[in-house]
Amino acid sequence: MLKVGVLGAGHLGKIHLRLLKESPKYDLIGFYDADIINGNKVSAEFGYTYFDNINELIAAVDVVDIVTPTLSHFECAKKSIEQGKHIFIEKPITHTLQEAQSLLDLEKKFGVKGQVGHVERFNPAFTSIKDTIKEPMFIESHRLAEFNPRGTDVPVVLDLMIHDIDAILSVVNSKVKQINASGVSVISQSPDIANARIEFENGCVANLTASRISLKNMRKSRFFQKDAYISVDFLEKKVEVVKMKDAPKEAGDFDMILQNAEGIKKQIYFENPSIATNNAILDELESFADAINNDTTPVVSLRQGTQALEVALQIISSFNTTSI
Question: Which residues form the Gfo/Idh/MocA-like oxidoreductase N-terminal domain (predicted)?
Answer without folding.
Answer: 2-118
